[in-house]
Amino acid sequence: MSAQDKARAWIRPDIQALSAYHVPPAGGRIKLDAMENPWPWPEEMKAAWLERLRGVDVNRYPDPRALALAEQLRQTMGVPGDMDLLLGNGSDEIIQMLALALRGEGRSILSVEPGFVMYRMIALWCGMDYVGVPLQAEDFSLDMPALRQALEEHRPALVFLACPNNPTGNLFAEADILEVLEKAPGLVVVDEAYAPFTDHSFLPRLGQHDNLLVMRTVSKLGLAGLRLGLLAGPSAWLEEIDKLRMPYNINVLTQESARFALEHHQVLDEQTAQIRSERTRMLAALAALPGFHVWPSEANFLLARIPERAAALFDHLLDNGVLVKKLHGSHPLLEDCLRFTIGKPEENARLLQLLRAFAAHG
Predict the structure, then answer these.
(1) Which one of 166, 200, 272, 338 counts the least CB within 10 Å of its CB?
(2) What is the DSSP string of 47-89?
(3) In a domain? residue 53
(4) Rounded CA gap, 256 and 254, in Å?
(5) How far apart are CA 126 and CA 332, in angstroms?
(6) What is the pLDDT of residue 5?
(7) CB-based contacts of 215: which residues, under 8 Å, 6+ apart?
(8) Structural domain contains residue 79
C-alpha cells in the first residue's frame, strides 16, 4: 500500500475534503493583503528590545500561565479587574480551544458570512457543524430575522461575532449584538481583533451577560509575528477552557517581547493613529475612483467592489508589485471585491497611482 493510499484510509474523510489555508508569498511586493501594521519599531526601540532579550534563558520552559504578560495586557487593554484572562498562540488557538471545549454530538458553531474563515475551518477540524448566516447585502449589517431563525433552529453551542468584521470592516449594531446575547443558548464570543482602529468595545460589558466572552489579539497593533491572542471573561468559563490549553503555549520570547512592546505602547498607539488617518484619506480617494464602490471601515483595511473588473485589477496590481486580497469568488456577497490593507503613506500612494491608471483605461 502506498503512503497516499494509507493516508486516505486513515485520515478523516471530512479533513481530506478540506483545502488548506493558503497564504500567498509577497515575493518582495508591497504587502497590503494581511491587515498588518506596516511600520517596524524605531531603531532605538529595537536595540532596547534586543538588549532585553539577552536576559532571557531559552533553555528553560516559559511561565506556563504567562502571568506577568497577562497582567500587562489587562492594564493596557482595560480588561475589568474581576474578569479572568486566557492567552493563546494567536487567536486561532483560542478559537480551537473554545471549539474543543464546547463540541459534542449535534452541537454547532454559528457565525455570520462573509466573516473570518477560521471559525468555519476550526469548527470542521473539531468535528462540529458550522452554520453561516449571510449578512445584509447592501451594508453587511446583521440580518436579524435570519439570525433569530438560525439561533432557534440550530441552538448553537458557540457563536462568533467579529466586531469590526473581517473582511467587511464594519461594526455591528450594539442592540443587535445584545439581542444575540439574549437569544443564544450557549456561549457568544465577540472577536475584537481590530479594536485598535475603533472606539467601540464589549470589554466593559463583561460580567453583565453570563454567556459573553471577548477575544483580542496583538497582531494588528504591530505584533503579528509574536502570535499572541487573549480571551477575557468570567473565570467560570475560562477555568474550564484553560484545561484544553497546551502547556507552555506562549514561549519565552513572545512573553518577554510582548511585555516590552506594551511597555512602549505609546509607539504602537502613534502608529495606530497614523493608520486611522490614512484610512480616512484612502476611503475618500477610493470612493472618488470611477467604477469603485468602497465601504466605510472601522478596521485597518478597506473593502471595495469593482464590478466585472476585480480579478483584472488584482492581476494588474500584482504585476506592478502590489499584493492585495482578492475576495472575488470567496463568497457571493463579495463578488467583484478586493480588500486593501492600509499601508504607509508611500505604499498607499503607489496603490492609488496604480488604481487611477487602471480606472483611466477602463
Answers:
(1) 200
(2) HHHHHHHTT--TTSPPPTT-HHHHHHHHHHHT--TTSEEEEES
(3) no
(4) 6
(5) 26
(6) 82
(7) 91, 94, 95, 189, 190, 191, 192, 193, 229, 230, 231, 232
(8) yes
Q: Cα–Cα distances in Å, from 205 out to 2, 84, 172, 211?
A: 55, 14, 16, 11
186, 156 contact by CB (below 8 A):
yes
**Domain's final residue, options 235, 264, 293:** 264
Q: What is the mean pLDDT of each run of 10 residues along the chain (362 residues)?
A: 85 80 76 96 97 96 96 96 96 97 95 97 94 97 98 98 98 98 98 97 97 97 95 97 96 97 96 98 97 97 96 96 95 97 98 94 70
Q: Does a structural domain hold residue 47?
A: no
Question: What pLDDT does residue 19 have?
Answer: 73
Closest C-alpha among 150, 155, 102, 159 to residue 126: 102
First to last CA, the chain: 56
Residue finishing a domain among 199, 231, 264: 264
CA angle (173, 199, 96) in 5-degree steps: 70
Cell of 347: 505604499
CA 161 – CA 109 distance, rounded (Å): 11
pLDDT value of residue 21: 67
**Length of the chain counted residue by residue:** 362
pTM score, two decimals? 0.94
CATH number of the CATH domain containing 142: 3.40.640.10
- State which residues form the domain around 332: 3-42+266-360
